[in-house]
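Researcher: Please translate sequence to structure tokens.
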Amino acid sequence: MGTMIEPLAVAVRALRKSTVKEKDCLVILGSGTIGLLTLVVARQMGYKQIVCTDTAEFNRDMALKHGATLAVNPLESDIVDVVKKLTNGRGADLALIAAGANNIVDQATACVRKRGEIGIIAMITEKIPFYSYQIVINELTMYGAMTYETKDFKEAADMINNGLDLSDFITQTMDLEHTQEGLDVLSQKKEHVVKVMIEL
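Model: Translation complete:
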């Protein structure tokens, strides 16, 4: 479990940077490794309803298994409609972007309520367009979260030391000689994968 502290700390940081006090609804756009860990941390922090999205069925199933209220395929359902229905038209308090689809910033800004927040934690290196009017008219706040501070790392370690079980997220275990294979599984999604453990 110690190997999971570092990525868990990224999720802690992503949520701790938010200044919204309400925790009625959180949207996580993208349920890969960091998205799923953000879900786990959000549950620890007391978010009441958490909506996750992903195009991969395995990732959506993992999100539901670990406490998501809903797990939605954004190619098949309108995530904004889903969130509005769940919150009686109000919108989410916070949306976290953990994937890099072209329209994902617009999805996030449309999902959150007035004066809500959007956190970007995905490493999006390509330029993507977004509709800035939503940010202005609804007075939204947007922030980025890169890694973590020492206090975030400590909080992640405390969660695991206090019994948080993330063993489900270690989906493959390989020896040192198969490290490249493990990296290929991760980068090419050759198998259902969250984290690959290399044993020395």
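Researcher: Any highlights?
Model: The chain has a mean pLDDT of 96.
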